[in-house]
């Protein structure tokens, strides 16, 4: 029987009693979905899924992001990304620079294509002196909203912020010295800046989350630039307070799910080039979760 064991921190729970290689029953999926909204980060240890098994499991939550074929994707499976610093025969077998900054994924897309769930499987975890490296840190944007001053909640209740992929892309090139090339004019047209509410209602819990992040947000619409910058800076510093943060320390075979809508994450780059870290990932988009009929049925509400 599936069991969810909270870890006692602001985020995080362990999932046992379920085989993720097999299709989930309606009951088990409902338990998992509720726990994802409630605890934000779920770990099912000891389940070294293949790329195909990973994609099959992740697709239960929604449409998978598909990337163009490259060394960063599983051969023949562009929906499975390889996150790795492993080098074989002088060539990298994945992309090593992904996620080493605070963000939540794909907020630069329209609502149905923003990130909903990230699902990762750990194949190699670097260690040093018996200590695992390359952890993933999270921040709880549901808890952070709940603790905001009432004046801020009221002032920003109907505010929207502009999210733009190009902001992050240029930062990676200019600051992180990523070898990626600037977005072409065509790519910019395909991913224009989009607005999202500053405070989003979480479709699983019904609670508000702070839905802005420093990686993609350009400004708050309708605010003077100085006020927008100061307001965003306040929200970012608030979210990153220690009481809202949690670190997952990986073990080989971990299957980790996290909810993009209610969390930020940051891949901790505390390991060297010879200390190998290898993950495979599926990104699930929010094409279903904002549909009330899907969510009610998935959660077993109303007899569905």
Automatic annotation (TrEMBL):
Domain TauD/TfdA-like: 3-282
Alphabetized UniProt keyword annotations: Dioxygenase, Iron, Metal-binding, Oxidoreductase
Gene Ontology terms for molecular function: dioxygenase activity
Domain of life of the source: Bacteria
Family of the protein in this entry: Belongs to the TfdA dioxygenase family.
Protein name: TauD/TfdA family dioxygenase
């Amino acid at each position: 029987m599936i069991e969810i064991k909270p870890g006692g921190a602001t985020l995080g729970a362990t999932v046992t009693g379920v085989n993720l290689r097999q299709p989930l029953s309606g009951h088990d999926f409902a338990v998992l979905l509720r726990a994802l909204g409630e605890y934000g980060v779920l770990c099912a240890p000891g389940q070294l899924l293949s790329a195909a098994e990973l994609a099959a499991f992740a697709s239960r939550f929604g449409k998978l992001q598909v990337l163009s074929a490259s060394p960063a994707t599983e051969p023949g499976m562009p929906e499975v990304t390889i996150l790795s610093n492993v080098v074989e025969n002088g060539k990298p077998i994945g992309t090593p620079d992904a996620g080493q900054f605070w963000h939540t994924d794909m907020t630069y897309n329209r609502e149905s294509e923003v990130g909903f769930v990230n699902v990762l499987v750990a194949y190699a975890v670097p260690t040093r002196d018996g200590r695992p490296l390359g952890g993933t840190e999270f921040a709880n944007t549901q808890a952070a909203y709940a603790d905001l001053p009432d004046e801020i909640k009221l002032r920003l209740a109907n505010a929207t912020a502009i999210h733009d992929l190009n902001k992050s892309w240029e930062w990676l090139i200019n600051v992180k010295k990523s070898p990626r090339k600037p977005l072409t004019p065509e790519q910019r047209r395909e991913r224009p800046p989009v607005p999202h509410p500053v405070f989003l209602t979480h479709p699983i819990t019904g609670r508000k989350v702070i839905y802005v992040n420093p990686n993609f947000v350009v400004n708050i619409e309708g605010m003077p630039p100085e006020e927008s910058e100061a307001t965003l800076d306040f929200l970012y510093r608030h979210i990153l307070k220690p009481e809202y943060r949690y670190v997952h320390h990986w073990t080989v075979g971990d299957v980790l799910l996290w909810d993009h809508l209610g969390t930020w994450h940051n891949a901790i780059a505390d390991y060297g080039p010879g200390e190998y870290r290898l993950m495979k990932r599926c990104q699930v988009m929010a094409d279903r979760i904002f549909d009330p009929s899907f969510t009610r049925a998935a959660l077993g509400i109303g007899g569905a």
